[in-house]
Write a structure and sequence with these properties.
6 helices; 5 strands; mainly alpha; about 160 residues
């Protein structure tokens, strides 16, 4: 129910509040743990790993910079900084977009694909240790469905 431009807000009950706080903590601490593992064992940040992962899954291992930013839920400037770091190491190259010549593409190089493959076991072990080992197999489907709903609602709704 609304009054003017205000929406009536129902407080969270104790169970909802406990879930929300645990979810918020996990949303912060789990990516930090992944990042720490990758940095320690591979010298790669989680953002660098995901950038190479998204490129590895794209046709011809190539994405427009804005599409890469969207895939990684990062700003275009943040994505550009990551791509520049990876480019300096020969893991990614940038090239003018062939479609309109106005934009830039990021392309995962062969060396980048090999670097991603080398880092994958570290990321997998981290995912198991920090997430999968804490979930009951029977909860995976419902938890996955809930997270997909969270992510779908979050697309483009910042600031609403």
């Amino acid at each position: 129910m609304t009054k003017g431009n205000q929406v009536a807000i129902t407080p969270l009950n104790a169970r909802e509040e406990a879930f929300f706080r645990a979810f918020a903590r996990a949303a912060i601490t789990v990516p930090r743990a992944f990042d720490a593992d990758l940095l320690h064992e591979q010298g790669l940040s989680l953002s660098e790993y995901f950038t190479m992962m998204f490129l590895s899954e794209a046709p011809d291992r190539c994405l427009r910079m804005n599409a890469l930013a969207t895939a990684g839920a990062l700003s275009l400037s943040g994505t550009t900084r990551i791509v520049h770091r990876l480019e300096a190491e020969g893991l990614v190259r940038r090239e003018k977009s062939g479609g309109d010549g106005r934009g830039w593409n990021a392309v995962l190089t062969d060396a980048g694909l090999e670097r991603l493959r080398a880092a994958w076991p570290t990321h997998l072990a981290s995912a198991r240790r920090h997430v999968m080992d804490h979930l009951d197999p029977g909860d995976l489907d419902s938890f996955t469905a809930a997270l997909e709903k969270f992510a779908a609602e979050g697309n483009g709704s910042v600031g609403r």
